[in-house]
Amino acid sequence: MKQLTDSKCRMCHKAEEHTKHIVAGCTTLEPSEYTNRHNMVAAYIRWMICKHTGLQVTDKYYEYIPEVVPNVNGTTIMWYVLVTTNRTILAN
Fold first, then answer.
1. In angstroms, rounded to a whole number, what is the distance separating the alpha carbons of residues 37 and 54?
2. How far is it, in rounded angstroms, from Cα 42 to Cα 78?
3. How far apart are the first and last CA of the chain?
4. Sign of the four-CA dihedral 34, 35, 36, 37
5. What residues does 25 pair with on adjacent strands?
6. What DSSP character marks residue 71?
7. Closest to 70 in 3D by CA, of 51, 50, 45, 86
8. Which of 33, 64, 65, 89 lies 20 to 30 Å (CA to CA) from residue 39?
9. What pLDDT score does 4 carry?
10. Backbone phi, then psi, for 76, in 5-degree steps?
């Protein structure tokens, strides 16, 4: 028996549910899932930087809880620090 299926996104019900939409275009996933994915990638990169500079880190990057602003040999490694500027940023 043929079933009628809706091709709209199951989350936002607005756009067609394609890979591109799920990965980067769904307005329902945007405020949470995209931010979480971004933060996980950023945490991994920071873990690798800290490991490379000799800071003590956990064996598994996803268990590492970063110190906010460690200083290693005069280098500051920032994490969740608001950076302000008095110039206009032209790109996102």
1. 26
2. 11
3. 49
4. positive
5. none
6. E
7. 50
8. 89
9. 56
10. -95, 130
Q: Tell me how far apart the alpha carbons of residues 70 and 21 are, in angstroms, rounded to a whole number.
A: 38
Distance CA 23, CA 79 (A): 25
CA proximity to 67, closest of 50, 82, 54: 50
Mean pLDDT by 10 residues, the chain (92 residues): 74 88 85 83 86 84 75 76 73 63
Give the span between the Cα atoms of 74 and 62, in whole angstroms.
26
SS (H, E, C) 7-69: CECCCCCCCECCHHHHHHCCCCCHHHHHHHHHHHHHHHHHHHHHHHHCCCCCCCHHHCCCCCC
The half-sphere exposure of 63 on its side-chain side, counting CA atoms within 13 A, is 5
